[in-house]
Amino acid sequence: MIVSTISADVVDSTKLTKEGMVELRDSVNAFISEIRQIDPSAWGRLTRGDFVECVVPRPEKALRIALLLKTRLKALDLPIIKDENSQLSVYGARIAIGIGTMRTIDRQNDVMDGEAIYLSGRQIDLKTPTTRGTLVLCAKDEPRFIDLNAICVLIDALVNKITSRQANVVYYKLLGMKVDSIAALLGITQSAVSQHAIQASWYAIEYAVRTFETEITKLCK
Predict the structure, then answer these.
(1) Which of helix, strand or coil describes residue 153?
(2) What stretch of H or E contains 221?
(3) How many Å apart are CA 102 and CA 89, to the nearest integer?
(4) Nearest CA-CA partner of 6 in 147, 112, 110
(5) Which of 19, 53, 96, 205 could hold 120 in an S-S bridge, CB 3.0 to 4.6 Å?
(6) What DSSP state is assigned to residue 28?
(7) What single DSSP character describes residue 141?
(8) How many CA atoms lie within 13 Å of 172's alpha carbon, on the beta-carbon side?
(9) How confident is the model at residue 4, as a pLDDT?
(10) What is the average per-residue pLDDT within 183-189?
């Protein structure tokens, strides 16, 4: 069975203070809990302090979950070490989506092993990435997925330009929350939520995610 995985490296995490690392860990763990709203069978883990791995058995949900991680990290305002400049608020994380089979998915024993996680993990470990983007899709049969990788690269360029406030709104929209619920959660007006969504080009993000979901379902049959 074809599944998807997500491997991610938080950008510039070594520049965070101790308090910043704790807040980062708590935020990533909250993200890991919330991805089950998108795919109940998905699960993830934080390793090495700043490396995230997720198994998403439904490949059509992979881009949405990858963007959830990216926007959640961009929405953070973490304390950094004095005199250090960080790109965390710009890029959030370098993320690779792997598409392939998995030999072992054992949540109870915390084991992920197989083709898909190797593909995404190796992409993140590359010293010279195959693209300049921070969100890519990789599969053994890459030509079949080239159009979907293009969607990932283009939407990555768009999301990298949004502000932390816009990222916050996009995060909750990706979870499927309504404007009134987001406004209540963030303590802002509904019109402010709508404005942030417009400025973040939510319409383009939503269209890209839905297109990805439709097309990858066909490819993974």
Answers:
(1) helix
(2) none
(3) 33
(4) 112
(5) 96
(6) H
(7) S
(8) 20
(9) 97
(10) 97
